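Structure ticket #2291
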Amino acid sequence: MQKIFLLILFFTFSFNTLSQNSNERKLFSLDGNDIGGYIGFNGRLTTVNSLSAGLIDLRIAVVVNKNWAFGFNTSGLLNDRHLNTLVKDDVYHLMGSYQGLFIERIFEINNDFRYSFSIMIGQGNAKYEYCRSVIADKKWYEEIIDQTDFYIIQPTFDIYYNLFDNFWFGLNAGFNLTTSIRMMETDEALLNKANGGLSLKYGLF
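Resolution: structure written out below.
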């Protein structure tokens, strides 16, 4: 987490420094290609076990000629519902996260509106972990009830608007396609769900 935070600070400082010296939406030119980039945050609504849950994403990308982006994505599942079906003595909750690389095709409607299609391929982890109030009474190797790794493909559609300067606000919709989630008494297609929400990007592209 500390490395990600430092990386965000580095990109933000770079965008600010370079944008002060240019009115164009790019960081620099390389062999005749305009090179830009962005940092993006997505908040998305989905369902887990037929109940609402959230996904939060961080995306960092390099943009080439304002129409192709290549980057890194990390996502976390926001799901704090207390469960007690696997164990009867205490409560636990489902946790999940995944990381991967993505490619994005960006289309310019005009100077202020863009839309894009992207596909992310990555790997993640899902687990049932005792709640924090319970972990204090457990040894470290007893904190997790069950866990598994999985691979994921995530196609996403975004449309966004330039609010001001280098800030873009948008809407997104996507779908998660994962390999089987093999945990106790768990639907193997647990995370294979549609999702949608809001996005905020900061960058030059």
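Closing remark: The chain is about 10% helix and 60% strand.
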